[in-house]
Amino acid sequence: MNTKPAARPGRPRDEATHRAILRAANRLLHEAGYGGFSIEGVALRAGVAKTSIYRRWPSKGALLLDLYMEGLAPATLEPSGKKVRQAFAAYLNQTVERLKDAGWSNTLRSLVAEAQNDPALARLVRDKVIEPRREDGRRLLEHGMKTGEIRRNVDIDITLDFVFGAIWYRLLLGHAAVDEAFARRATAELFKRIGSDHAVP
Amino acid sequence: MNTKPAARPGRPRDEATHRAILRAANRLLHEAGYGGFSIEGVALRAGVAKTSIYRRWPSKGALLLDLYMEGLAPATLEPSGKKVRQAFAAYLNQTVERLKDAGWSNTLRSLVAEAQNDPALARLVRDKVIEPRREDGRRLLEHGMKTGEIRRNVDIDITLDFVFGAIWYRLLLGHAAVDEAFARRATAELFKRIGSDHAVP
Amino acid sequence: MNTKPAARPGRPRDEATHRAILRAANRLLHEAGYGGFSIEGVALRAGVAKTSIYRRWPSKGALLLDLYMEGLAPATLEPSGKKVRQAFAAYLNQTVERLKDAGWSNTLRSLVAEAQNDPALARLVRDKVIEPRREDGRRLLEHGMKTGEIRRNVDIDITLDFVFGAIWYRLLLGHAAVDEAFARRATAELFKRIGSDHAVP
Amino acid sequence: MNTKPAARPGRPRDEATHRAILRAANRLLHEAGYGGFSIEGVALRAGVAKTSIYRRWPSKGALLLDLYMEGLAPATLEPSGKKVRQAFAAYLNQTVERLKDAGWSNTLRSLVAEAQNDPALARLVRDKVIEPRREDGRRLLEHGMKTGEIRRNVDIDITLDFVFGAIWYRLLLGHAAVDEAFARRATAELFKRIGSDHAVP
DNA sequence: TGATAATCGAGACGGTACGTCCGGTCTTGAC
DNA sequence: GTCAAGACCGGACGTACCGTCTCGATTATCA
């Protein structure tokens, strides 16, 4: 059994180049934000030819999306034995922690900005960024309904719009910080609405 | 008492030019979206010199903001005798109605995208777009608390983040439509627990 | 008998404005040369409206020409009792002296540069700047022929092309200075064979 | 032995693009003169991006200079066995012939006009246009002095100023044509002054 | 071992738009 | 009718990036 992909003919892609691009992109996004983020700038900083970027990513947005995927690990939203409320609180706290990194928050903000331009990217963002989180949330809520932590008459979609929406809203419009206080209050308010009376001791 | 503005020296700005720019900008935004929206394109379509645009608006974003301000009228969110729930429902329906216009929704989406670039614009957007709506909402909720329609323990800020956030979230990420169904379900969900038990007969 | 021009209706032109424009133009030409010379710049420096310049001069070139005419006085080239050779030497020395002023030399250089653009100006330059000098020179040479200082077989036009040409050539191409040494050597060379053998003792 | 130039990295410049630019520039200069000569216009006519022009020439003037260098061939001024007088006459006739082409004369006139703006260009014009011709002339005159065709007391610099000056003077100020009659009369007048008595039979 | 092929860097290519400058004209209210 | 002020349309400037392309050189697989 061979885990290696079928070796293509020709010179293989250089892993180092790949990493250099992602690192440079992250750095540029961190320092200059969406406005200062250009393929040309990334290539320059990475010491890489523009071609080497376009060979891997068809557009600026695709690179941004990969930047997101690369750094994804932390935030999880799963019914992992914990109480539903605790799982939500943990997710929000991880998110808050993650967004403290300017590179990361700029990546997300740029991704949305770029998607306003680029329908293909918009679809990818929905499929890779938005839906997986919603799916996690949906499963968690349904789990909570079974355990009795969540009331049965909750409108799951709208509830997910409320909680994820609040995060994006604060992130993109910037009228208030996405911080620990937000995580705490959002969780509290969420469960004030959706928690079963008897489930919250 | 003089209502006329203190006549500035020099040739006054041409109102027709002003309107032509806004109209052309709207049209372009309607047809080509954020990606196809350029000062040059607006100037061309309006039959106006680029300088005439830059004289009025320092940046693309400032023009977008004015485009928003111009078309503002419809959506209101006031405790105008009606029940709080009805006021919210009316606001969401007006918003839904408004966003059916591609020009208008592109204006809002572009405004947010552009603001990711431009901190000065971001501040203006918060002051002119975000905060006024939040303030309306805040007043309405407080009014509802007095009348007993809204429970006293509601976290107003977070609640506003939930409901406005959901709108922006759907608008910008596009995973679901901002339509009548959304308005209905969001209102319902909002009042499921936010409303005092005895206030909704 | 009235020397005053027939009084036109309306507010008379302001002499001070006129002078302010010329002074500012000269200053700008002195400091920034042809490249930095713009009607807009002159208006700004003179504290005058652009209109007030265009009312008086139809184009940049016309203003430059007037700048030349204003400062004309010094250089004369007349058979004023002196020997022809002395008259020429005096003319060249006056010219050299005049051109030491950067404003003046820039005026002349700009006038020629501008005339390459503007046939109407080119004609004016010929009529007001070139021909009068040539006419003076022609009269002087003819006078010299009568007195025997200048040989009869001299081609006057070509001779004038040689001597005035040399000045413009040095002024515009800048390969060598238009200075006292030039004046001396040019006069000497001019009279080496142009002068009758017996006329120069 | 390798005559190939050390191949620079990257895609080599396209010779066709280069030629298209020069051809378009020449055409534009021919048709519209200095006033109508713009980088933008050249790019449009050549079907070339503006950047492709700026990549090669840092300024309008640099392009004009290359236009001059490209079309240089014809005029020679060398002591090629001929008599000095004949060499001068030939040079002037070649120059006259060359200047009949509006493209060529506009190139020279524009070059001088532009150089009034641009000290760097002025220096290049002196080095590439003015001095080589003067150097040819200087060698020719010195050669003539050795053969006895030119008198020993001639001031070479001033003589060159006279004859080249006359050409530029007529070209730039336009008070008289640079034509065959001019060539003939200028040669005659020149040798009336500088020719040794015994050398002109 | 040598042909084939995809990679690498570098950088040229045609484009689009940027934001600015200046040209020359027009339009105010005040004088 | 002039004045200062300043708006108007238009053309060009020089720059930044876009995404594509063409080079010579390098590094792999496959015959």
Briefly summarize what is shown.
The first copy, chain A, is mainly alpha-helical and 201 residues long. Chain A has helices at 15-32, 39-46, 50-56, 60-70, 84-99, 102-115, 119-147, 156-173, 180-194.
Can you describe what's shown?
Four copies of one chain form a homotetramer. The first copy, chain A, has 201 residues and is an all-alpha fold. Chain A has two domains: 15-56, Orthogonal Bundle (Arc Repressor Mutant, subunit A); 70-194, Tetracycline Repressor, domain 2 (Orthogonal Bundle). In chain A, 68% of the residues lie in helices and 0% in strands. Chain A is built from nine helices and no strands. Chain A has helices at residues 15-32, 39-46, 50-56, 60-70, 84-99, 102-115, 119-147, 156-173, 180-194. The longest helix of chain A is centred in the middle third of the chain and has 29 residues, at 119-147. The first copy, chain A, is elongated and about 60 Å long. The N and C termini of chain A lie far apart (53 Å). The relative contact order of chain A is 0.11. The mean pLDDT of chain A is 90. Chains in contact: A-B, C-D. Chain A binds a DNA duplex (31 and 31 nucleotides) through helix 2 and helix 3.
Question: Mind sketching the topology for me?
Answer:
Four copies of one chain form a homotetramer.
Chain A: H1 15-32, H2 39-46, H3 50-56, H4 60-70, H5 84-99, H6 102-115, H7 119-147, H8 156-173, H9 180-194
Helix pairs in contact in A: 1-2, 1-6, 4-6, 4-7, 5-9, 6-7, 7-8
The structure holds a DNA duplex (31 and 31 nucleotides).
